[in-house]
What we know:
By secondary structure, the protein is mainly alpha-helical. The chain contains eleven helices and two strands; from the N terminus they run ααββααααααααα. Strands 1-2 form a two-stranded antiparallel ribbon. A hairpin with a 2-residue loop joins strand 1 and strand 2 (65-71). It starts with a helix and ends in a 9-residue tail after the last helix.
Amino acid sequence: MTPAAVRPLGASTRVVRRSASRPGLSPRARALAVTGVVATFFVLWEVLKWLAGDPWRIHGSLLGVRVDYEHLPPFALSIAGDLALPHVWSIVGAFFEPAQRYGPPVWEVLIGASLYTFREAFVGFVLGAVLGLALGIVFVRVRLLERAFVPYVVASQTIPLITIAPIVVIYLGASWTSVAMIAAYLTFFPVTVAALRGLRAADPRAFELLRSAAASETQVFWKLRLPASVPYLFSALRISASASVVGAIIGELPSGIPDGLGGQILQDVQYYITGPERLWATLVAAALLGILFVGLVRVAETVLTTGRYRPANA
């Protein structure tokens, strides 16, 4: 390959690096944006209840001033009732109520359940990520296997997870390891698709350059394919992190494990009529666990990719 042929590759690489290095939102601006979205969601929640929820009354004192207010919504919708949609302050207050008589508060129980579910989700996340990356590498190297098995990999995700979970629990037993396998089932697919795309994302002229230098397939993989696939892989890992939490919670339902968020959801469902805010508090804990897991993957991405695959003058 002539130097003239190599020169456009460097120019295109500089364009990609410059576009990738453009600053985005600062952490403070991102935090403000997220806070604004959450606050808007809660305001709309209460506006719906104000317009079409159940009648409610505030009776007591506020800063030494007696408050006695009763609100009668002008409309009535079952979806906005207290049974289907409790007030935001009722859900927040549920975290501080005792989980059982003379027992620890709900927030303490939910932290323990979240840690148990996180262990299952993390193990499934790791297993699924390794399996997905391995399948992607094999499919890229052997096109015949890609054409033969990728349709089955895609078809595997069309099977409802709720039908697979009991089968896995029956074969592997009602334990956290079987739940981790269910989480891995949801995790491997995004990583496989991202690996297939990312391992082929490098500039074709870069492949020609390395092959003209008699580079082996292993050297091409470590020097070109893997660095080019990093953005794709971490995007898939963020999706897989949230999916692993969902898989772990669903896997806990047929296994009857009472220690995780799935068992807590089943318990809250039994007493939903008398305390619907308990179930909503558990759902909030599950959502926060998923957000935390995705955030950890984002932090790992920042730590592992900062300063790598980027020249000093980029």
